[in-house]
Amino acid sequence: MRLCIKQRVFTWGDTYDIYDEQGNEKYLVKEETFTFGHPLHVFDKQGREIGCVNEVPFSFSHEYEITIGGVRRGSIHKRFTLFFQKYDVDLNGWYVEGDFLDWDYDVYSNGRVVAHINKEWLAWGDTYTIDIENPEDELMAVMLVVAIDAANRDKN
Description:
mainly beta; twelve-stranded antiparallel β-barrel; 12 strands; 156 residues; 48% strand; globular
């Protein structure tokens, strides 16, 4: 299954629309801009909040906490490395590895690929595609991409 995440360009704070392969809206992500840590709220297509990505206060390594349905499900924090993006992921036993240019990521669990995340080069605003192996991992994969994008945005 494939999802497409498209950032809205002319909005106050980060806003992302997430579509399925047929172009149907699945999720909406909105940043709370005037709040400490700029939490990113994830809504389903009916407008109900289903998850949130919050920056952990006073973390030096861009650490983010992921909650789904009001329950803490895990966290990620970006590690300093010279050539590859590395994230310590405490989410479902997953780990993430990225390439030299910060554009592609693979998510693994017990040696198997959970999802492949690709950032589109020639797009207006950040645009990602997520290829997810198991539909049950869809929401967690979306939350992870949102957290990675926030960590990369903070790096810049």
